[in-house]
TrEMBL record:
GO terms for cellular component: apoplast. It comes from Solanum tuberosum. This is Laccase. The gene is LOC102584221. It is found in: Secreted, Extracellular space, Apoplast. It is an enzyme of class 1 (oxidoreductase).
Length: 559
């Protein structure tokens, strides 16, 4: 098994040195060719959709304040769009990317330029396809360096590495999804987890498919970790070493030390690692977290953290990961995440709330005459299973196209019940429709997302496009609007773009609606998104043209 100093790490370090030179805000241009490539893993070769032939795709490097233009040319057989996950895209939803929400997909043979500014953000984000299950193979990292002359608010690393966690199916992923839909059941789970596209030596035929990074003793390394998996929250650890968490979702945190991290689909985490152990070869490992009675891919992906000069004949040591159902670790880890909240990086938490929403998560079974089982699994928010429109919501809003959506998504569930009590199988009048919520510009919003025991409780990572939010509270059981707000952290709550709602519990988030447009809000488990666990917020234009949605680009795809 060949271990080496990875090209990605060298490039990242080279880029880190490059930004030390004086420079103004720049225009960064990238070309993304979406095409079918031959890829082999786990003794299986297949054709799959990639960007520029890579799995993962290329890393986008930029600096806070830069303008970025990415020309996406679609040579694949699927129409698709790409989402720049975590970038706020102020007034510029046209560059956000979710198909049929802010744009129509890029049709086969066509191109579209995503043109956006990186404003007020620095850190690790990522990009991925945002239609069907194509993000299983179409994804990559975004690394945003601080403005020129601005140091990290933590010890300067000697080198950094991007680690993208993902999943691998031996079969064609789109066919796996179609088969599940035809049966009305969950599609087959993945065959392996991956680290930078490689499952590691614990899987067959993986001698050439193991990611390795070479390190030197006495150095500090910054690991930029991304969970690009479709459906699995993951534990991640490095044998004999500890992590110091310094950033999540491109927001600096109060540093804390941990033996492992928990990272949900859509989330990013930056950690510092000090190479202070006996020189050797150590495994980095990722494995699923699931504390509900639901099957997941529980196989462990591994990569090698190798000290310089150690022969490859030395067998690496595996880390001790938390148990698959370790709820205590999950709750404890998330409770340690706090905003840095300094004068330079303040936590501007809304203290007064103009709009309160309670959104209940529900799983259900609806009739399906075309399904082999006669029924289909569905998912809903406030008993509404979202139907994707045939015209993009932002386009219909901007051009005043009628009949695409209704702005009547309810602020609370229609039928109160003991949300996390005994398992329930009733759908409680689940409806389907393209119903979204209209929000006044610059209003302050609190959303409480409440898990329920409709069919089963489960953890759900929710992502809000166009915004960061503050996670002001979380708990197990039913949210109590009279007692729980008194326990909120309004001083230094973590700020992020994707948050896990705990199994059988609730999470409260707050944000100021100062970014006009139509913004997707959905579970980042691709399985649940496809079943309808999603909605959108239409944030109205504000006073003056500088608070309105920007005009669309001329090459905006049409449906």
């Amino acid at each position: 098994m060949a271990t080496r100093t990875t090209l990605l790490g060298v490039l990242a370090f080279g880029f880190l040195c490059f930004i030390c030179l004086p420079a103004e805000a720049a225009l960064k241009k990238y070309q993304f060719d979406v095409k079918v490539s031959n890829v082999s893993r786990l003794c299986h070769a297949k054709q799959m959709v990639t960007v520029n032939g890579g799995f993962p795709g290329p890393t986008i490097y930029a600096r806070e304040g830069d303008r970025v233009q990415i020309n996406v040319t679609n040579y694949a057989q699927y129409n698709l769009s790409i989402h720049w996950h975590g970038l706020k895209q102020y007034r510029n939803g046209w560059a956000d990317g979710p198909a049929y929400i802010t744009q129509c997909p890029i049709q086969t043979g066509n191109s579209y330029v995503y043109d956006f500014n990186v404003t007020g953000q620095r850190g690790t984000l990522w990009w991925h396809a945002h239609i069907l299950w194509l993000r299983a193979t179409v994804y990559g990292a975004i690394v945003i360096m601080p403005q020129q002359g601005t140091p990290f608010p933590f010890p300067q690393p000697d080198r950094e590495e991007v680690l993208v966690l993902g999943e691998w199916w031996n079969a064609d992923v789109e066919q796996v999804e179609k088969q599940g839909n035809a049966l009305g059941l969950p599609p087959n789970m993945s065959d392996a987890h991956t680290i930078n596209g490689k499952p590691g030596p614990l899987f067959p035929c993986s001698e050439k498919h193991t990611f390795a990074m070479e390190v030197e003793k006495g150095k500090t390394y910054l690991l930029r970790i991304i969970n690009a998996a479709l459906n699995d929250e993951l534990f991640f650890a490095l044998a004999n070493h500890t992590f110091t968490v310094v950033e999540i979702d491109a927001v600096y945190t109060k540093p804390f030390t941990t033996d492992a991290i928990l990272i949900a689909p859509g989330q990013t985490t930056n950690v510092l690692v000090r190479t202070n152990q006996v020189p050797g070869r150590y495994f980095m490992a990722a494995r699923a977290f699931m504390d509900a009675p639901i099957s997941v891919d529980n196989k462990t992906a591994a990569a090698i953290f190798q000290y310089k000069g150690i022969p490859e004949t030395v067998i690496p040591k595996l880390p001790t990961l938390p148990a698959q159902n370790d709820s205590d670790f999950a709750l404890s880890y998330n409770s340690k995440l706090k905003s840095l909240n300094t004068p330079k990086y303040p936590a501007n938490v809304p203290l007064n709330v103009d709009r309160h929403l309670l959104l209940t998560v529900g799983l259900g079974i609806n009739p399906c005459p075309t399904c082999l089982n006669g029924t289909r699994l569905t998912a809903s928010l406030n008993n509404i299973s979202f139907i994707m429109p045939e015209t993009a919501l932002l386009q219909s809003h901007y051009f005043n196209i009628k009949g695409v959506y209704t702005p009547d998504f309810p602020d609370k569930p229609p039928t109160p019940f003991n949300f996390t009590g005994a398992p329930l199988t009733a759908n409680l009048r689940t409806n389907v429709g393209t119903r979204i919520s209209k929000i006044a510009f610059n209003s302050t919003v609190e959303i409480v997302v409440q898990d329920t025991n409709l069919l089963s409780v489960e953890s759900h990572p929710f992502h809000l496009h166009g915004y960061n939010f503050f996670v002001v509270g979380t708990g197990i059981g039913n949210f109590d609007p009279k007692k729980d707000p008194a326990k909120y952290n309004l001083n230094d709550p973590i700020e992020r773009n994707t948050v896990g709602v705990p199994t059988g519990g609730w999470t409260a988030i707050r944000f100021r609606a100062d970014n006009p447009g139509v913004w997707f809000f959905h579970c980042h488990l691709e399985l649940h998104t496809g079943w309808g666990l999603k909605t959108a917020f239409l944030v109205e234009d504000g006073p003056g043209s500088d608070h309105n949605v920007l005009p669309p680009p001329k090459d905006l795809p049409t449906c």
